[in-house]
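Re: How this chain folds, sequence and tokenised backbone to follow
How to read it: Take the token row as a discrete description of the fold.
Start of record: The labelled sequence and token lines come straight after this line.
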Amino acid sequence: MAKHPLNPINGWIILDKPTGITSAHAVAKVKRILRPAKIGHAGTLDPLASGILPLALGEATKTVAFMMEAKKAYSFEVTWGQERDTDDIMGAVTDSRDTFPEKPYISSILPEFIGDIQQQPPSYSAIKVDGQRAYDMARKGQALELKSRQVSVHSLEMTSYSIDKSEFICHCGKGTYIRSLARDMGRRLGCLGHISVLRRLQVGNFMEKHAISLEVLEEMSHKGDPRYFNWDFLLPVESALDDIPAMEVDSNQAMLLKSGQAILPTDTRLAEGNAGTTVLAMYDGKATAICELSQGKVKPVRVFNI
């Protein structure tokens, strides 16, 4: 341990996860490379999927819950003509059709999948049923009929078409399964379908332009101690909190918040806010605490030790 001390890194790394590995495996690789004192991730990606996997390091782990609620964007390819038990190309074929949808027909049904819709999650998902993960039960051959739930799809656009495959971009809210979306579109078209390519383009304000690949991180690790890296790819802790109103505080107010004490709002607009409103207190350009308005005061909920 003396040779490899943990690094006190605070902030967000937006990893461009490659296909073929789980999110947990990707996190383990980053942990081995950077040796952060603490690491977590916001939103799991299937092994089939590539793209944006936000990783919270150090004090940023206190903001993961906010990213779990964030809107997301995906690009994906649907292969028509087959349905599979995993709803993607990794699974076994369970049914097939000899017909393929025409482009105008696909376009005509897309509005049915936009808005607040009911969606049945895939059997191979991380949802818990009687204390067990659905994918564990499915792998054991147990029959599953997961309950439908409401999800929000903000937009769904077809970007490419061929006779047996179509590509789409989808913007959606939390809990939306793109695999289920592809399956349900295939059923609605009468030709069946499954995901053959899936990439996450965005989580909240984190986009591809912010991302760094595992390959680049591994190349950096060969050059020496992570403490001496160029950390341009590390985003501040508060990056996950862009949708929360910020309030500047002085050194005395920051000290009070960090000791768990409430302060008066420093912004008159916040003073008029509703009870329970979340506020980010900032001191000297850094996040000090996530707070809530209560009884005319700003009370700390999560304090950052930065």
The mean pLDDT is 88. Residues 171 and 301 are 31 Å apart (CA to CA). The chain is about 20% helix and 35% strand. The helical segments are 23-34, 64-68, 103-109, 134-139, 178-189, 214-221, 251-258, 268-271.
